[in-house]
Design goal:
The protein is mainly α and about 280 residues long. It has a single domain, classed as ABC transporter involved in vitamin B12 uptake, BtuC. The protein has 11 helices and 2 strands; from the N terminus they run ααααββααααααα. A two-stranded antiparallel ribbon has the order 1-2. Strand 1 and strand 2 form a beta hairpin. Helix 5 packs antiparallel against helix 8.
């Protein structure tokens, strides 16, 4: 049963990470911008949930939706004000994103202070025990919500005109423009979609974590590990890699030491990239 417990904990961690990684890979695939500010959007999603639930007494489930919408709007604003000038410019866009990260983290510190904050979820005190496996209610909710969001994203990308246009721009922006697809508008909407996923992830893990302005750094780091492992620009690769990373970290934390869980993820990436430089699902 210990193995089953490790798998459950790993899947719950990987589910939240998947939302961050998919948002990252969507933005990179369309804009060719390495968005180091994505972790800040995760952090803002958690703090937005705190404001809605604690300060405004909004029900937690409603707060998740509101947080996703607010962070989507923030992401769209960042694209219009900053990132639109750096589409296709990986290095310049990455530097701009780092500057934004430092700015927004310091603004969050000024607004919320350095003291840790917390969010109460409706399932915090719920525990399900089955065949010796203990499953916390909030973690079950994270897994379920992530599955719903990923399925909705899959429908959007593969079954709608917007998704077809998105994939066309990803494959060949010039050809997409000749077909009447406006890359700039589509890129902005994609940035908003990525922000909504990051905000949702922050809202989902808010009851599980201590809220601090720096809380987005670890998810951002692991999100990049996931998209590199899965293959840059591959949504499916990011999903699978996120689950693998979550399970690896859970196993290392249980059977060895929590301090080794992060560098083991990087060791896994080094091994995979040595054998397959484009990642597991990257195109050669």
């Amino acid at each position: 049963m210990e193995v089953a417990q490790v798998l459950f904990n790993g899947v719950s961690a990987g589910a939240a990470l998947a939302l961050v990684a998919v948002g990252l890979t969507l933005v990179f695939g369309i804009l060719r911008v390495v968005n180091f500010a994505h972790g800040v959007l995760f952090m803002l999603g958690a703090y937005a949930t705190y404001l809605f639930t604690v300060r405004l007494s909004v029900p937690y489930l409603v707060a998740i939706v509101l947080a996703a919408l607010v962070i989507a709007a923030v992401a769209i604003g960042l694209d219009l004000l900053v990132f639109r000038r750096f589409h296709g410019m990986s290095l310049e866009g990455a530097i701009a994103a780092i500057a934004l990260t430092l700015l927004l983290q310091n603004l969050a510190f000024l607004v919320f202070g350095g003291a840790s904050r917390g969010v109460r979820g409706p399932l915090d005190d719920v525990t399900v025990t089955f065949a010796g496996l203990t499953m916390q209610g909030q973690r079950l909710f994270i897994i379920g919500a992530a599955v719903v969001l990923v399925l909705a994203l899959g429908f959007l990308v593969y079954r709608t005109p917007f998704g077809r246009a998105m994939r066309a721009v990803q494959q060949d922006p010039s050809a997409a423009r000749l077909q009447g697809i406006g890359p700039s508008r589509l890129s902005t909407l994609t940035f908003g979609l990525g922000g909504a996923l990051a905000g949702s992830a922050g809202a989902l893990v808010a009851p599980e974590q201590v809220l601090l302005p720096s809380m987005g750094e670890a998810p951002l780091l692991l999100g990049f590990v996931a998209i590199i492992l899965g293959g840059m620009g591959s949504v499916g690769g990011a999903l699978i890699a996120s689950l693998v990373i979550g399970i690896v970290q859970s196993g290392v934390s249980t059977y060895w030491t929590p301090q080794a869980s992060v560098w083991m993820s990087f060791a896994l990436v080094l091994v995979v990239l040595t054998l397959r430089p484009k990642g597991l699902f990257g195109h050669e």
